[in-house]
Amino acid sequence: MGSSRSQKVVIFLLAVNLLAVVYAIVVYNKTLESGMSRAASTAEKREEANVPVHNVSIGWTRPNTIYGLIHVAKTAGTEINKMLSNKYERVCGNKGYSYDAVRREKNRYAHAADWVDIMFRHPKAQALWGGGVWNRARVPIEIMEERGFEDCDYIAHEESADKWEQIYKQWPIELHVPCREPISHLMSMCNFQKNWVKIIKDDFNCNAPDLIREIQKCDVGLWRMHKQLLNQQNVTLKCFDPMPPQRYLDYMDKFLQPKRVQLKVKDRVINSVAHNKSEECVWHQTEKWRNNLIQIMRENHLFYKFCHDCLGTSDELPLAPVAAVNSNTK
Predict the structure, then answer these.
(1) Which of 1, 156, 171, 227 has the fewest C-beta atoms under 10 angstroms from its C-beta?
(2) What is the arithmetic mean of pLDDT over 104-110?
């Protein structure tokens, strides 16, 4: 009889302990969910207020190769360089470095569009690089070379091909070539040359007897893709469609180390006047005429020939489909 009573007491105590454990687990989960909710809410508020977001990278392994962007004008290169340097470590580009990206963007929020950093106000900088056109978001090649590339995992250049030589002679590098649809790219360059830098006065003339000359007057840095980069032992060339840029940014996330502190970047208008296709004669021509124009572009510029030969092959970077990116950003 006494033994039976003792067993009941033990069972009762076990049941009480079990209920206490269950209650503790429920309370812990509620507390955890509440904390995560508050953290998410705080992160959203910080992002809206352009407050730096803190991240921790765990278990990251440095890649065996350096990655590089051949920044051909009007291929979203400025946005790519800026976004990568804001989000990842050891990005080195003339349109932005990782190490001072937060300071760069804070300065741009605080000052006018033509702000100039202290580092470029020095008389020597004024004499060498024209003063106000240079800043932390537009770094002269002389400064880049003085800093060196020993600690760079990703390099973006808006320079001639020979500037890559000092890099690939020391380390293997995978160079990424941004390949837009050719005629759209040509029209972007023409728009830039006419409405932003104002180098040309006339629009692209579809009736001109010399279409090669029409292409050349709009050329902005097509020479950055040069035969010097072909068949180099330490250079691997890859191509990608940079439109929209987010697909490429997502792809590079697998290879670059996230930064501890990030800042939402400020939008930047590159062209003073937006594209107006209705005013561009190329879109009113026949498909045969446009195909002929593209063929002329390929025959006279290695950049377009390389893109044509590369896209659709194993050398094209496997970016996510455009539809997938759009659905993820809604």
Answers:
(1) 1
(2) 69
- Per-residue model confidence as pLDDT tens digits over 133-154: 677 788 888 889 999 999 999 9
Closest CA to 256 of 109, 33, 57, 112: 57
Q: State how far the Cα of 116 lies from the Cα of 213, in Å rounded to an integer.
A: 37
Lowest-confidence region among 59-68, 264-273, 275-284: 264-273
How far apart are the C-alpha atoms of 243 and 200, rounded to whole Å?
26
Question: Where do we find the tokens 């004669």?
Answer: 281
Residues making up the chain, counted from first to last: 330
Contact by Cβ (8 Å): 68, 156: yes
Find the angle CA(255)-CA(259)-CA(261) to the nearest 5 degrees.
160
Question: Token digits for 215?
Answer: 């292409």
Please say if the pLDDT value at position 128 is more than 90: no
Q: b/e string for 55-88 if b means 16 or more Cβ within 10 A?
A: eeeeeeeeeeebbbbbbbbbbbbbbbbbbbbbbb
Dihedral angle at the C-alpha atoms of 186, 285, 299, 184, nearest 10 degrees? 20
Q: What is the pTM of this model?
A: 0.77
Per-residue pLDDT band for 330 (boundaries 50, 70, 90) equals very low
Q: How far apart are alpha carbons 39 and 56 in whole angstroms?
A: 15
Instruction: Tell me what pLDDT residue 52 has.
Output: 47
Which has the higher per-residue pLDDT, 196 or 94? 94
pLDDT tens-place string over residues 162-180: 999 999 999 999 999 999 9
E-state strands within 153-213: 154-157, 173-178
Domains within the chain, CATH numbers bracketed? 53-328 (3.40.50)
Among 118, 82, 79, smallest CA distance to 262 is for 82
Q: What percent of the chain has a predicted confidence (pLDDT) above 70?
A: 68
- Separation between Cα atoms, residue 196 and residue 273, nearest integer Å: 7
- Sign, CA dihedral 264-265-266-271, equals negative
87's tokens:
């989000």
Of the candidates 59, 83, 56, 85, the residue with the CA atom closest to the CA atom of residue 260? 56
